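Design a sequence for this backbone.
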C-alpha cells in the first residue's frame, strides 16, 4: 500500500471523488470510513456502507467551509429486502445519501463520478484491481487542537485464490467480489512497509485499470464493504449492481 503522489494525474479522479467520513469524540474528529461521490441522472449522491452508520453517532465529511453532516434518516439502503442493512448477513452493505438541492456547494472541492467513470460493461472477474481509500491508521488526529488530516492510500489487489471462499465467507457470487488482502510486511523498493489493516476503507472504491490510447486510467468497479483477515479476505460489491438498485429508488428533493 502506497501513499498517493498528488502530482500523479492518473489518480486525480479517484482523489477527487473519494471522501473520508468522521465522527467526533470529545470534540476531536475520529476517522470512521470512506465514501464515494457519484452523479446519477440529475441526482448528486454520496455512497458508503450501511454498517458504517449503525452506531448512534453523528457522522460528517470535510467540506470546503467546515463540515457536512450526514443525516442518517435521509440514507437510502440498497440491501436485499429480507436483510437488515449493515448487519453481519448484509454482504451488499451499501447505502446512499442523495444530496439535497442547495447543499451542493459543500462539495465544490470534490468531483462527482459520472456513468462514464464507472465500469458497467460486465461483471466478469478481473485479474487486478486497485483499492483507493482512507484506512483509519493513516489518519493523523490532533485531539488537543481538534483537527485531523487524512492520507489517501492505494493498494493493488487481486481476486481471492481460494476456491470455496464465497461459501466459506457467506458471500453472494451474484454481487460480491472476493479479494486477497495480505495484512503483512511488504518490500517497497529498498525499504519495508506494512500493509495497514483495512479498517476505514469501507465505502471506498475498487477500481480497474483501463488502457486508453496507451495511457492508464481507472474506472470504478466496486465498493469495498467488508472482509475477514483470518481468510486474508476483503470483499466488494459490484458497482454495476449498485447502479441497478439506485435506478429503482425514489429520490426526492434532489437535482
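Sequence:
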Amino acid at each position: 500500500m502506497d501513499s498517493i503522489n498528488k502530482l500523479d494525474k492518473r489518480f486525480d479522479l479517484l482523489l477527487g471523488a473519494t471522501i473520508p467520513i468522521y465522527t467526533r469524540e470529545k470534540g476531536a474528529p475520529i476517522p470512521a470510513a470512506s465514501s464515494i461521490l457519484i452523479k446519477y441522472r440529475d441526482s448528486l449522491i454520496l455512497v458508503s456502507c450501511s454498517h458504517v452508520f449503525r452506531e448512534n453517532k453523528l457522522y460528517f465529511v470535510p467540506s470546503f467551509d467546515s463540515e457536512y453532516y450526514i443525516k442518517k434518516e435521509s440514507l437510502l439502503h440498497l440491501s436485499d429486502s429480507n436483510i437488515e442493512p449493515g448487519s453481519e448477513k448484509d454482504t451488499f452493505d451499501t447505502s446512499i445519501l442523495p444530496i439535497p438541492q442547495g447543499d451542493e456547494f459543500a462539495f465544490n472541492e470534490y468531483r462527482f463520478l459520472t456513468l462514464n467513470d464507472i465500469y458497467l460493461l460486465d461483471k466478469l472477474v478481473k485479474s487486478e484491481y486497485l483499492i483507493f481509500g482512507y484506512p483509519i491508521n493513516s489518519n493523523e488526529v490532533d485531539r488537543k487542537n481538534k483537527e485531523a488530516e487524512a492520507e489517501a492510500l492505494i493498494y493493488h489487489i487481486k481476486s481471492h485464490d481460494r476456491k470455496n471462499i464465497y461459501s466459506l465467507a457467506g458471500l453472494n457470487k451474484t454481487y460480491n467480489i472476493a479479494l486477497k488482502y495480505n495484512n503483512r510486511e511488504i518490500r517497497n523498493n529498498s525499504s519495508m512497509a506494512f500493509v495497514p489493516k483495512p479498517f476505514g476503507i469501507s465505502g471506498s472504491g475498487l477500481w480497474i485499470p483501463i488502457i486508453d490510447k496507451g495511457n492508464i486510467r481507472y474506472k470504478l468497479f466496486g465498493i469495498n464493504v467488508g472482509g475477514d483477515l483470518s481468510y486474508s479476505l476483503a470483499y466488494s460489491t459490484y458497482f454495476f449492481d449498485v447502479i441497478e438498485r439506485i435506478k429503482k429508488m425514489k429520490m426526492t428533493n434532489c437535482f
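The CA atoms of residues 119 and 221 lie 5 Å apart.
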